[in-house]
Amino acid sequence: MNDPKPNLAPRIPSMKSQEKRIDKLKQVLERLSRGEIVQNRQLKTVLGAEGYARYCYDYREQTQLRDVLANKPKVITEYERRLKAATFAYSKADSKSIKRQHKSASKMFNYTDTLFERLAEYLSEKIAGDLDLEAWFDRTVETTPENSFGLSPDSFPQVITSRSLNNAGGGHLVNKRTIREVKIDAVKAILEELTALEQETVVDTTDQMARFKRLRTLSSD
After folding, report:
1. pLDDT, tens only, 2-12
2. Where in the sequence is the domain holding 90, given as residue range(s)?
3. Cα–Cα distance, 46 to 183 (Å, whole number)
4. Whole-angstrom Cα Rg for the chain
5. Residue 79 and residue 65 in one domain
6. Which is nearest to 94 in space by CA: 82, 112, 78, 80?
7. φ, ψ at 137 (rounded to 5°)
8. Statement to judge: residues 152 and 184 lie in one domain
9. Is 155 in contact with 119 (CB distance < 8 Å)?
10. Tens of pLDDT along 103-154?
11. What is the pTM of this model?
12. What is the pLDDT of residue 206?
């Protein structure tokens, strides 16, 4: 009785389960992109243990960031108060100038110049150079002679929580995301990983089949 030939065929990973998971992830991504609610238990199922753990970490980071934004340092609050007062005075001076009340406007502009000069001093002495405090502003706090502050509201950085039209974002807001965005990013990350793994598997399977054919030829000799 002849001994059966050994089964030299490589174990090819099942692609169907992986394809199903990718399809489910795409469906969840579409729902999130449409603004639909995806519960955490559903998210946990499609993301898997590792992917869901990363999502929870990002979620906690966003919660902590919101806590930071809700507790503004006193130095920043004082800067806001001074900027608001200077801006209000500047608007009144500008209004008088438009109404051709030149003498009154000139006095008011002199007053606003003083307010902005003091504001620049406060910014330079209390905030500039402190990275934690600078993160509260929509732009870099520059105090060099080449980048000195002007004497108008537009030339001063805005606090990132300000509703001013001059607020350019930046600072802490660069890292701020909605919970929906955190979920979308988590799904996208797993999709990218699976897609890359799928491509690697195809290449690896081709190599395995080539080796199998060579081994089968040797075995039949």
Report:
1. 555 555 444 44
2. 73-160
3. 11
4. 31
5. no
6. 112
7. -110, 155
8. no
9. no
10. 888 999 899 999 999 999 999 999 988 988 998 888 888 766 555 677 888 8
11. 0.57
12. 54
